[in-house]
Write a structure and sequence with these properties.
By secondary structure, the protein is α/β, with parallel strands linked by helices. It is built from 13 helices and 21 strands. Strands 4, 14, 15, 16, 17, 18, 19, 20 and 21 form a 9-stranded mixed sheet that branches. β8, α7 (152-164) and β9 (169-176) form a beta-alpha-beta unit. The longest helix has 19 residues, at 234-252. The protein binds ligand LLP.
Length: 447
């Protein structure tokens, strides 16, 4: 496993200018400060408060088109099924749908969300190790495009439910190719020890079993080896080569394979990683699966939405500790959990233009939650900041808002969509009343 990205100070941290140069949605205006597309983030903070997630519709479109263009240029018959878990905001889903995206979902809740956003179940794939019978029935009744089965046990359940509905469920087998995607341990999925998928050795027999079941139409194989893959194409190539070998083996035994699902996982540069390009991924798919004459599916999440979002937060106060300077923000680990959970590094840019010419010194950037783990960055080189000054956490569009909690009774933050010069609320900030609204006291409760 590659070392996790460090929270610790490192002179190799990119400068503000470098961070901005690599992020086309963001720019610095001499008077208005940091802009997302044409909208000053300061204006968004003034209008909608902080902390607030801000997404760029233009970036979502640009990235979807770049991925599609890379797949087309490689001559692949490929469909893109956006991994809803990365960001399930309705506005985000609708922007991607308008570009032609299908969906990858892992729960009935995500299926409801994608259908509500106008993504038909007929272009949606259902993944996940623990689909409940109720979720399977819901997906089948909705006309799901594909279910990726993750175990022998699940296949029997799917068949029984589908047969009861008078259907044959379109099922792909999620194969665990046992390759090391060399990403963070908590987000690698394609190793033999992970809970995901079916062991390569068992897959052939299980596929034959599916063909014999009354409620299943075997349609192909699927894999997903991990997330935030930045270590070149070798893991992808190894996994896809194994899939290709399996497709040939299945066909040799007269078992039909209609399509292959290549999963997601394409990484993005948060700090200074050299992330592989969509062209490289398309090339790896072409080289391994291209000769089989099967359509391929992709399930990208982070690559599409990560760079399209920031988390906008205000400084509560700057505190001089015994050994270090702390910037205490109004955002916390309950909003953006990735640094606490994966030691993830997110760029932090001051919003004010003045901050970009001010002297810099290291600070620990923290939230107000009562845990030391509520630390976004250690020794990050930033200017002195006053209460109310704004910062933007970069690349927060994926696995940001969706992973938020209300820990410390902190309401879920608002979400805003920017499109060109326009900005609008796309998720209302939770209130304290919302937090209390679902609690109940028993009738018999007499304190
Ligand atoms: N397909 C399947 C079956 C998945 O499990 C995932 C992500 C994806 C597609 C999308 O992967 P992506 O293209 O976004 O890498 N919360 C973690 C990431 C967890 C990813 C889980 N599965 C993080 O914040 O880094």
């Amino acid at each position: 496993m590659a070392a996790p990205l460090p929270l610790a100070p490192d002179s190799a941290d990119p400068t503000f200018t470098e961070l901005l140069a690599a992020r086309p949605a963001l720019s610095m205006h001499a008077h208005d400060g940091l802009l997302m597309d044409e909208v000053p983030l300061a204006r968004i903070a003034a209008e909608f408060g902080t902390p607030t997630w801000v997404y760029s519709a233009g970036t979502l479109r640009r990235r979807y088109r770049a991925l599609k263009a890379a797949l087309d240029a490689a001559g692949l018959d490929a469909s893109i099924h956006y991994a809803t878990k990365a960001n399930d905001n309705q506005a985000v889903l609708r922007v991607l749908r308008a570009e032609g995206a299908g969906a990858d979902i892992v729960s009935a809740g995500e299926l409801r969300a994608t259908m509500a956003a106008g993504i038909p179940a007929g272009v949606t794939v259902f993944s996940g190790v623990g689909k409940t019978p109720g979720e399977i029935r819901f997906a089948l009744e909705a006309g799901i495009f594909q279910i990726n089965a993750e175990s022998a046990e699940e296949i029997e359940v799917i068949s029984a439910i589908a047969a009861g509905l008078g259907l044959r469920a379109p099922v792909s087998l999620r194969v665990n190719p046992d390759v090391d995607a060399r990403t963070h341990a908590k987000i690698t999925t394609g190793r033999a020890e992970n809970k995901f998928g079916i062991a390569f050795e068992d897959a052939h027999a299980l596929y034959a079993r599916m063909a014999a079941l009354p409620g299943i139409r075997p349609i192909g194989i699927a894999t997903h080896i991990g997330s935030q893959i930045t270590d070149g194409m070798s893991a992808y190539r190894a996994a896809y080569a194994r899939l290709a070998e399996m497709v040939r083996g299945l066909r040799a035994h007269g078992l039909p394979v209609e399509r292959v699902d290549c999963g997601g996982g394409l990484g993005i540069p948060y700090r200074d990683e050299i992330a592989p390009t969509p062209e490289a991924l398309a090339g790896a798919i072409k080289a391994t699966l291209g000769g089989l004459g099967v359509p391929v599916m992709l399930e990208p999440g982070r690559w599409l939405v990560g760079p399209a979002g920031v988390l906008l937060s205000a400084v509560v106060l700057q505190k001089q500790g015994a050994a270090r300077r702390f910037l205490v923000l109004d955002a916390a680990m309950n909003d953006l959990v990735r640094p606490a959970m994966y030691e993830a590094w997110h760029g932090i840019l001051p919003v004010s233009p003045l901050a970009h010419v001010a002297p810099l010194s290291p600070a620990d950037v923290v939230g107000p939650v009562c845990e030391s783990g509520d630390t976004f960055a250690k020794g990050r080189v930033l200017p002195a900041m006053a209460p109310g000054d704004l910062v933007a956490f970069l690349d927060a569009g994926a696995y940001g808002a969706v992973m938020s909690s209300t820990y410390n009774a902190r309401p879920l933050a608002a979400e805003v969509l920017v499109d060109g010069a326009r900005a609008a609320l796309v998720r209302v900030r939770q209130t304290h009343e919302d937090l209390l609204a679902h609690q109940r006291l028993p009738e018999w409760f007499t304190p």
